[in-house]
Amino acid sequence: TGYAGGFSGGEITKGFVDFGRQYDQLTQSGLVIWSSSAENEQSIERDEWRNGAFTEALVDGLTGSAADGDGDGVLTELELSAFVARRVKALTGGRQHFVPHKLTATADFPLFGVVGR
User: Fold this and answer.
1) What is the pTM for the complete model shown?
2) Which of 36, 37, 13, 27 has its CA nearest to residue 102?
């Protein structure tokens, strides 16, 4: 959604989930939420991507080894997050910025093994 990074303010409702009312509960869970754009930005879509910049960046990060920053064959949340941030910015010429929300101090954790290195 456009302005996705503003999900946590007050009683803002995005889609079917009222994050404003559930925010306190979510902050206790260790949940990581990724927003496609900052609260003051529209999420950019292009026909050639067949989706938005965030989804394009996420798919790029999950379908190759480019996001595995240290090359150890394990893709972690922080590596994928850093890759998506750089890729969204590049795809949109700096007009959109991916915003990760770590609601508690959560350590980096593995997501996937990288195949085809």
Assistant:
1) 0.77
2) 27
